[in-house]
Amino acid sequence: AQKVTQAQTEISVVEKEDVTLDCVYETRDTTYYLFWYKQPPSGELVFLIRRNSFDEQNEISGRYSWNFQKSTSSFNFTITASQVVDSAVYFCALSDYTGNQFYFGTGTSLTVIP
Amino acid sequence: GAVVSQHPSRVICKSGTSVKIECRSLDFQATTMFWYRQFPKQSLMLMATSNEGSKATYEQGVEKDKFLINHASLTLSTLTVTSAHPEDSSFYICSAKRQNTGELFFGEGSRLTVL
To answer: How many angstroms separate the first and last alpha carbons of chain A?
Structure first.
């Protein structure tokens, strides 16, 4: 069965610290997609990244980076030099290759303290 | 980029009334749209999948008579919460799957408060 686990419920860091949000997934599919979304207090989901199961290259986008390790079924997200505006709930998600089955983790609430 | 718009973003209604939430894909056609519900400090739970021109597929435990979903066109799906009660108060989010690419885009969400 498909499942996404975000073990960290809440994290607090001081501004400028680096922080890593963990995501572990389970799936029997060989082709699947992994996502990260940011949900600020206003509620909308902000798309951050989509990665397909065949692409294990790590990705960096500004202060954000993602580490996809198929061997450990993990797709961790690191924010470097965190800022107050990074405070939000972050969701990791998994979908099948059709995109019709979408599974969200329980989210990690990140608070960046000035 | 592709945009999915939900309306209204916030709605307050009295118990017993019905509320309609619209989900529109603004610059692409979506054969499939999804409706999610999110309780405070919890994850998004899929309620139903709607395909244009056909009946929605509801997840287990979701009352189809309570949450009416209509996907009348390739750019619009509606969720109607019928005879709303305070326990229906929640944040409802839709997503739309782009027809040719399969990419998924989320709406901004609609916060329903039933008094």
So the answer is: 41
